[in-house]
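User: C-alpha cells in, sequence out, please.
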C-alpha cells in the first residue's frame, strides 16, 4: 500500500494539467519526495511544547489517526534559475509558482484525501481544514495550528535552516503538503537528523548566503525576522507586482535561490 500511495502522488504531480504554467508546457514542480510518519510518534507531542499547545496533533485533527503523509514539491530548475538573477523582487515564474503552484498543491491534498476515502479510509488535509489558523502573536512569533514544515521534518524529509525554511535532499526551493489518515502505513522515517543539520550556518558556522540575498535585511546570523519578511512579501511585493504578474500572491524566495542549499542538502555535498 505504501508503494501504491507514493506512486499515486508521483503520478498526480507528473500528469495533472494543474501542475503546468498557464502560458507554456512547463511544470511548476518536479517529482515529489514523500515521507510517512506515525501519528503516534512522540514528536507530535514535542511540537506542542516547542511550538505551542495550539499546534494540533494528528489525533486531535482526526481521532484514530494512524499516519501522516508528507510531501515535498521541488520547484523546477528553470523557475529557480529565473529567480537567481533577481535582487529585489521575485521573477514572474516564481510568483506564478507561489500562486498557481500552490493551488495545485491544494488539489493534490484534496486528491489524496479522496483517493484514501475511496479505499475506505478516513483522511484530512490539515491545512485545508476550516479550523486551520495562522496566529500572529504566539511565544514563537507567527505560527499556525499545523505547520507543513514541521510535518515534513517529522517525516524525515529535511531540516530547518537559518532563513526559517526546510532544507531537503532536493534543496530549499519547494512547496510542502501533508494529509493525515487512519490508514496504518510503515513509516519511512528512521533516525531523524538534528533540527538544523542540513544548514551550513549551523553545521560549521559557514555560508550565510541567504543573509545577503534578502533585500530587506530580514535574515541575520541570529535568525529570521518573520514580521519584517512577512510585511515585504505580503504587503510591499503584492502592491508592486500582483497586477503586473497577474497573481494574487507573489512570494519572494530570493533567500532560497542562488544559495548553496537551493537544490540539495549542502552538508552532504
Ligand atoms: S544559504 Fe546557507 S546559511 Fe542560508 S539556509 Fe542555506 S545553507 Fe543555511
Ligand atoms: S522570503 Fe524574501 S523577504 Fe523573506 S527572508 Fe527571504 S529574501 Fe527576505
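Assistant: Sequence out:
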Amino acid at each position: 500500500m505504501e508503494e501504491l500511495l507514493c506512486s499515486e502522488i508521483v503520478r498526480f504531480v507528473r500528469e495533472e494539467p494543474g501542475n503546468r504554467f498557464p502560458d507554456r508546457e512547463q511544470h511548476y514542480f518536479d517529482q515529489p519526495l514523500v515521507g510517512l510518519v506515525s501519528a503516534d510518534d512522540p514528536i507530535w507531542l514535542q511540537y506542542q511544547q516547542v511550538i505551542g499547545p495550539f499546534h494540533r496533533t494528528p489525533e486531535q485533527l482526526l481521532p484514530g489517526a494512524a499516519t501522516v503523509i508528507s510531501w515535498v514539491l521541488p520547484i523546477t530548475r528553470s523557475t529557480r534559475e529565473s529567480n537567481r538573477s533577481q535582487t529585489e523582487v521575485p521573477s514572474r515564474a516564481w510568483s506564478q509558482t507561489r500562486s498557481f503552484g500552490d493551488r495545485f498543491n491544494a488539489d493534490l491534498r484534496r486528491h489524496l484525501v479522496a483517493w484514501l476515502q475511496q479505499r475506505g479510509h478516513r483522511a484530512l488535509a490539515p491545512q485545508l481544514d476550516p479550523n486551520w489558523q495562522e496566529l500572529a502573536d504566539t511565544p514563537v512569533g507567527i505560527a499556525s495550528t499545523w505547520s507543513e514544515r514541521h510535518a515534513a521534518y517529522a517525516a524525515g524529509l529535511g531540516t530547518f535552516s537559518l532563513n526559517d525554511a526546510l532544507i531537503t535532499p532536493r534543496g530549499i526551493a519547494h512547496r510542502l503538503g501533508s494529509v493525515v489518515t487512519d490508514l496504518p502505513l510503515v513509516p519511512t522515517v528512521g533516525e531523524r537528523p538534528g533540527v538544523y543539520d542540513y544548514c551550513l550556518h549551523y553545521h560549521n558556522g559557514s555560508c550565510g548566503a541567504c543573509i545577503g540575498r534578502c533585500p530587506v535585511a530580514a535574515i541575520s546570523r541570529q535568525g529570521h525576522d518573520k514580521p519584517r519578511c512577512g510585511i515585504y512579501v505580503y504587503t510591499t511585493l503584492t502592491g508592486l507586482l500582483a497586477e503586473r504578474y497577474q497573481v494574487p500572491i507573489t512570494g519572494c524566495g530570493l533567500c532560497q535561490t542562488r544559495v548553496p542549499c537551493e537544490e540539495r542538502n549542502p552538508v552532504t555535498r
